Amino acid sequence: MTLASAVWLSSARHIRGVVRSPWTTIISLVQPIVWLLIFGSLFSAVSRIPGFTGGMYLAFLTPGVLAMTGLYAGGWNGMYTIIDIDNGLLDRLLASPMQRLAILLGPLAQQAVVVLAQSILILCLAWVKGVSFAGGVPGYLVMLVSVALLSCLIGALSNALAVIVRKINVLVVAVQFLVLPLTFTSSAYMQLNLAPGWIQAVSKVNPLNWSVEAAREALGASPDWGQIGLYLGMLSVLLGFALWVATRAFRSYLRSQ
Question: How confident is the model at residue 17 (pLDDT cuts 50, 70, 90)?
Fold first, then answer.
C-alpha cells in the first residue's frame, strides 16, 4: 500500500465520521462565523485608537479569525486519536501494514477539509459585511494555505500529546492552556505596534502570528512576497518537525503496548 492510498483510506474514514455527525459539522462551521460577528462588534473601536493603521477593523480581524479557527481545530484533533485508543482501533492500525505517517495524516487531512470549508464561509460573510481585499485570488490562496499549514502543525502536536496523555479531559486542559496565550500574543485582534514590547517579542516565534501576518500581507495591495514566503516557509518547517514528533510519539506508544 502506497503512502498516498493509505492517507486516502485514513482520511476517508474520518471524513465519513464527520458526515455521520451533522450537528458536529454544523457547529464547527457556525462557530467561526459567530467569532467574526462577536469579536468584530466587540473590538470595532480598536480602529479608532491612535496608531492603528489596519483600516476597517472587520477586514483586519478576518485573517485573525481564520487563523484562530485553524488553531482551535488543530488543538482538538488529538481527540480522534484518543477515541481510537479507547476503542482499540489505534492498536490494530499500528499493527497493520499501514504506515504510521498515514495514520497521522488521515485526521489531519479531514481537519484541513473542514477548516477550508470554515474559511470559505467566513470570507463569504466578511464580503457580505462589506469587507474586500486588494490581494485578489493569490491573496486568498495564500490565506487558505497559511491556515491549513497552521491547523495541521497544531493538529500533529495535538496527536503527539494525545498518545502520551491518552485522556480527553487532560488533552482539553492542555489545549486550552496553550491556545489562549498563542491567540493573545499574536496580531489576530490587535496591531502589534499597539501591544507591549514583550508581546511583540513573543509574536516573532508564534506560529499563529506567522499565519495571520502571511495572510494579511498577501491580501494587501502591495504584498511583500519575500516576507510571505518566509512565514509560509517557517510554518512548513515547523509542520515537518511536528509530524516527526508525532510519529516518534506513535512509536513510543506502540512499544508501550
Answer: confident
One-letter amino acid identity for 211? S
Q: What is the DSSP string of 97-111?
A: SS-HHHHHHHHHHHH
CA dihedral 149, 65, 114, 83 (to 10 degrees): 80
Residue 49 DSSP SS3:
coil
Distances (CA, A) of 226 to 8, 132, 207, 213, 231: 33, 23, 17, 12, 9
What are the cell numbers at 15?
471524513
Other residues' Cβ atoms within 10 Å of the Cβ of residue 18 = 15
Strand ranges (DSSP E) for the chain? none
166-170 — which CB contacts under 8 Å span 24+ positions?
A: 166/82, 166/85, 167/82, 168/79, 168/82, 168/83
Q: Hey, where are the domains in the chain? A: 3-256
Q: Is the pLDDT of residue 28 over 80?
A: no
